[in-house]
Amino acid sequence: MDSLAFAKPESWRIGVDIGGTFTDLVLASSTGAIEVHKVPTVTHDPSQGALDAIAGAAASRGMSVGDLLGRCTLFVHGTTVATNTLLEGKGARVGLVTSKGFRDALEIRRGIRENPWDHRTPYRPVLVPRYLRLPAAGRLDRQGKEIDPLDLSEVEAAIGAFREEGVQAVAICLFNSYLSGTHEAAAAERIKELAPDLMLSVSHAIAPVMGEYERTTTSVLNAYVSPVTLSYVRSLNNALTGNGLKSPFVLIQSNGGAVSVTELGDTAVTLLLSGPAAGVGALNYYREAIGSGNLISIEIGGTSCDVIIMNEGEVAAVDLLDIGGYKCVTPSVDLHTIGAGGGTIARVDSAGFLQVGPEGAGARPGPACFGHGGTEPTITDAQVVLGRLKPGPYANGALVIDKVLAEKAIGEKVAKPLGLTVEQAAAGIIQMMEQKLLHAVQRVSTERGHNPERFTLIAGGGAGPLHAASVGRALDCAQVYIPKLSGAFCAMGMLNANIRHDYMRVLWGRLNEVTSAFLEEHFNVLEARAVELLTREGFAPDKTALRRAFDLRYLGQQWDVTIEVGKAFDPELVRRAFEKDYERLFGHTQPDGVIEITKIRLIALGLIAPLPSARADAVTAPGAPAETRPVWVDQESGWRDVPIYRGSSLGAGQVIVGPAIIDEQTTTVMIGCGDRLTVDPSGNYRVSMGQ
Asked: Residue 17's closest CA among 8, 5, 9, 26?
């Protein structure tokens, strides 16, 4: 993987993030220069947005697409295709082969409701109807040993039925297969012989965890989204390599790391958080400039807000995701998402109350002020009405903002029903939006035992810097940090992500009873698989990292806490680490409690050279505003004549005292009264909040 380091003559890395409204491309040159190109997302064909962005980047350099891609050493992509396929119900027709007695596990679920007070809201429909959930005899015991042999004739009968029903993908989930995959492997082999065109999703390879429901739903989800997602990925890869890209591109996974197209295999389920999970790479990139590993990012784009917390340099991971009401077990960044973006719609409900979100206006028609036919008032329309966004062209002319259209939408849909002026209605919309953002940050911080006062709030996304100072002030954060290229936050993060593969194995034992030799035996199996894969991907031993972890819990409990451990096993150190995290999460520990291990984990990294941080000499002259215009600042200050600065004219060391607005290439920054903004040596903005 030496080709992933910057080379001479000038070469570059390219990151492409396809969002709900814009497709962002970041080009990081070996000379240290970073360029951003934004184009509207093509909703019906996301790959077209990526190709449009590449064409725009090539044209801006006076190059052909072939020349641009030919000198690209690393192309990283984040895609929402898997997520959208699931949420829009446009996946494959799936058949399920399961063990006798477990045909209905998928529909029974866990037999509980997330909200015990809600008895009316139905579950999301199952992705495999009962007549396509077909059982086969055979059973493994709780040690993974065979009790009854697998009846392959029933597997064959299931395939015949699937053929008649037009099934496109088959999920295989047999009882206790997380302990031994022998039965599932035999079933898969027979299906390949009889129906080689069917895509297979085998549970012990995708989700080797205890729990028939969790393994079943994950296998089914993978079968549901993989045909569409993999077709998109392979088609885009062919288009890129056909136009000059020398090696297959890599994709951001839900775990925040990357995987090459060739090694992704048939596991598209690992891409359900592709894109937003790249925020981890961005946090690692900016933490050096900030000088702290305690960070909270709010990445606010056109559709949603994604919140990630980094505590002492580490971002927590989770296994169980809920995507649109469907459960999925896959290693993922602990990320909290709400429907709150620039395109989020405001409305007055039947009771006469103002509501903001979660519905959004999407890329088309988008906010009313974009002039694409939208009539619903959005957050962006409110910002325009309040003078924070200036009417005119944005994103290199990709769109033109019309204030009259924004005022009309808010006036008709919000102000008039509530008996307010258009400005009052717009201010109320922003206030509600920022309250939602506040709660979202508290969800990942205070609710999990973290005090926001210890953290720097990082604003990402095109809309994040407009709200960050206000949200940071409400949280009493240590400071707010606003990257100059906030509008391409995730695309930047993609270029700073390592290749990553996660392995896990169910393994039971009491912490004070298991031996180092026993654990070493099982870790060695996982490490051998990891090293083989990383070597195949071109990583030399000195460019890899293997990290071990345990899933632990007190005896008799149901949920685990994951604790990363060193190479040498020390039960006392593991206990102390577990109790520290347990107390933070739950407020107490059991000093004499028995701790048991339920799983071992291995995180295998292929290390890619990090993006270099830009540095600039300090500027002694004070920054001069380009203009002044009336802006609604906040409830207390109301309308003020606010100085407007051009980000391109500001240099390291310059200080601006709020209220003020800074117009940047990919975003707009707003600070409130008394806030103090300093341009750091990297050209980004540190904000100390006033009262």
From this structure: 26
| Residue-wise burial string across 16-32, b where 16 or more C-beta atoms lie within 10 A, e elsewhere | bbbbbbbbbbbbbebee
Kindly list the domain boundaries of the chain, sorted by start residue: 2-85+230-255+264-271, 91-224, 276-341+456-494, 344-432, 499-606, 627-688
| CATH number of this structure's domain 499-606, picked from the four choices 2.60.40, 3.30.1490, 2.60.120, 3.90.75 | 3.30.1490
Give the residue from 622, 640, 623 showing the smallest Cα distance to 631: 640
Q: Which of 234, 242, 223, 235 is nearest to 264 (CA)?
A: 234
Query: pLDDT tens, 59-103?
Result: 988 999 999 999 999 999 998 888 888 888 889 999 999 999 999
Write down the pLDDT at residue 8.
58
CATH number of 2-85+230-255+264-271: 3.30.420.40
- Indicate the class that CATH gives domain 91-224: alpha beta
Encoding tokens for residue 443? 């969800």
Q: CB of 244 within 8 A of CB of 66?
A: yes
- DSSP E strand boundaries for 423-560: 456-460, 479-482, 499-510, 544-554
* C-alpha to C-alpha distance for 630 and 561, rounded to whole angstroms: 52
pTM: 0.89
Residue 466's nearest CA partner among 238, 327, 660 is 660
Token look-up 């070469």 returns 11
